[in-house]
Specification:
By secondary structure, the chain is an alpha/beta fold. The longest helix has 21 residues. It starts with a strand and ends in an 8-residue tail after the last strand. The chain folds into 2 domains: 97 residues, no CATH class; 331 residues, NAD(P)-binding Rossmann-like Domain (Rossmann fold, 3-Layer(aba) Sandwich), CATH 3.40.50.720. It has 18 helices and 18 strands. Bound molecules: nicotinamide-adenine-dinucleotide.
């Protein structure tokens, strides 16, 4: 059993009286701590030279290691001490002694993530599990693209619970006790928005607003909404900042604007902190990769046909962001200290350097996939969806969460991911790696209704209509975080 733990600016020492079951884990733990000890990275938040933290009985090594790891990963935070391991009187003493916020709720918080079984969600969940190892993470998704895995490992293994449910159905039970809601579920691009205009408004706008209302009633602290830079529409003059006029050109973009307007009112009326992250266009490889995104499409095309055909004249501007950096932005939104007077924040998420013209992206991909040629449609009508975005607000308020992945890194990521799944399909634009094709396939097979709700199988719907619409909660505790 761990009886005491010594934490210093450059070192962490522990004293323990090992129980049989913990003994085997000590060397790995020491190694972990030693690697930190010799790194130059300061362990911020640790005050003073050397501390001794007395740990109450029952704290196992793995628990302490988990907590310490999260202290180090989140080193920009006030120190998060393993309060779960302390007796109440220890906590009080420590609070006074170190004058720090003992934010145990950050460790044990419940995060609900909607749309977790999508392209972005699959990657976000893995990141959140890594940075909040002790959090309870619950996913809610109707599973429209659930079967279209592009990696062997199932992304839901990182969750505590997966709930298969349409977000238009009641979610009171899911939101109960939640600290954070990360709302990703949406009809997620322009072509789908064009085809399913009414549903796009219903799911992306009305339901997002209802979910935020529910979250406020459920005493959720942070509601994080996945918005999009596409709300700037045609903006290829100066880069658009958050205070500029919006110019949504599509049903998808309009639904995001409508949601933001509704969310702002809720934040003001209820005091719940709402953060609308206006993401640049995503790229990268995830557990459910989609190829209907510009950079992913170019890499897929280069690999499978040796050719990149740019549908436009190549001049449109498109800001990009890698999935990993989206996940880090969501992490930031979860931990950011929100000023009291700022309940609602809309921020462009990406980086100024990642404002690219489409032809430049094609060129960058060509240099990574040998023998690729580029065809640009010089006769194409000017693409109205062209926008440069100013990311300076994000840079100033989230200095520790700035995008890190390079364009080369992103291209390599998609290339290696596609190669790892043996990708060769030159007709991939008609495949299930394009979101709209999957919906079409579901519709044609009679699996979903035009409102994008699952159709109950006839026998199921007679016996129990709720069985298909709302299947029972499935727990996926493959990864055990408690000890
Ligand atoms: N991918 C991008 O480039 C990008 C850029 C900016 C913003 N965003 C936003 O990020 C979010 C995630 O995007 P993505 O690329 O992962 O999309 P995606 O289509 O891959 O995933 C969306 C997920 O939402 C789920 N969903 C849709 N309607 C639902 C409903 N009614 N009930 C329950 N679940 C439902 C789907 O099953 C799917 O798993 C979206 O809100 C999107 O608008 C994405």
């Amino acid at each position: 059993m761990l009886t005491s733990l010594s934490v210093g600016r450059q070192q962490v020492r522990l004293r323990c009286d090992l129980q049989q079951r913990s003994r085997g884990k000590l060397p790995a733990f020491r190694q972990q701590l030693d690697s930190r000890k010799h790194s130059n990275a300061p362990i911020k938040g640790m005050l003073g030279a050397s501390k001794l933290i007395n740990v109450g009985p029952g704290a196992s090594l793995v628990r302490i290691a988990t907590v310490l790891e999260s202290v180090f990963i989140n080193s920009y935070l006030p120190p998060m001490l393993p309060t779960a391991c302390f007796q109440p009187h220890h906590c009080k003493r420590l609070k006074m002694r170190y004058k720090v916020l003992l934010s145990v709720e950050r460790l044990n918080m419940k995060i609900v993530i909607t749309g977790n079984m999508g392209y972005v969600g699959s990657s976000v969940v893995a990141h959140l599990r890594r940075v909040f190892p002790a959090a309870t993470i619950v996913g809610v998704d109707s599973g429209l693209f659930g079967h279209y895995l592009t990696q062997r490992a199932i992304p839901e293994r990182n969750l505590d619970t997966q709930i298969y449910r349409d977000i238009r159905d009641p979610l009171e039970d899911v939101f109960s006790g939640a600290d954070v809601v990360v709302h990703l579920a949406a009809v997620s691009n322009d072509p789908m928005g064009l085809r399913f205009e009414g549903v796009t408004k219903e799911v992306n706008e009305s339901t997002s607003i209802q979910l935020a209302e529910l979250a406020a009633c459920s005493k959720v602290r942070h509601f994080i909404f996945a918005s999009s830079c596409s709300i700037y529409g045609l903006a290829d003059g100066t880069a658009r900042s958050e205070d500029d006029t919006l110019n949504p050109l599509t049903a998808y973009a309009r639904s995001k604007v409508g949601a933001e307007v509704g969310l702002q009112k809720i934040a003001v009326n209820t005091g719940m902190t709402i953060c609308a992250l206006r993401f640049a266009t995503a790229c990268g490889f995830s557990g459910r990769t989609r190829l209907d995104l510009v950079l992913n499409d170019f890499v897929a095309s280069a690999l499978s046909t040796g050719r990149i055909s740019v549908l436009s004249d190549g001049t449109p501007w498109r800001p990009l962001i890698h999935l990993k950096d989206m996940a880090r932005a969501i992490e930031w939104a979860i931990v950011r200290p929100a000023p009291n007077d700022e309940c609602f924040l809309a921020v462009n998420v990406g980086s100024d350097e990642w404002n690219y013209q489409v032809a430049d992206l094609a060129e960058a991909v060509r240099s990574f996939v040998a023998g690729t040629t580029i065809e640009i449609n010089k006769n194409a009508q000017p693409d109205k969806r062209s926008y440069r975005v100013d990311f300076s607000r994000y840079k100033s308020i989230a200095p520790n969460h700035q995008p890190q992945v390079s364009l080369e890194g992103a291209i390599r990521d998609v290339r290696d991911g596609l190669l790892s799944m043996g990708f060769k399909d030159s007709d991939y634009r008609h495949s299930n790696l394009m979101r709209l094709n999957v919906l079409d396939e579901h519709l044609a097979a009679g699996r979903i209704q035009p409102n994008l709700r699952w159709l109950a199988h006839e026998s199921c719907s007679r016996e129990s209509p709720s069985r298909v619409d709302r299947p029972p909660t499935v727990s996926s505790n493959e990864v055990v975080h408690t000890v």
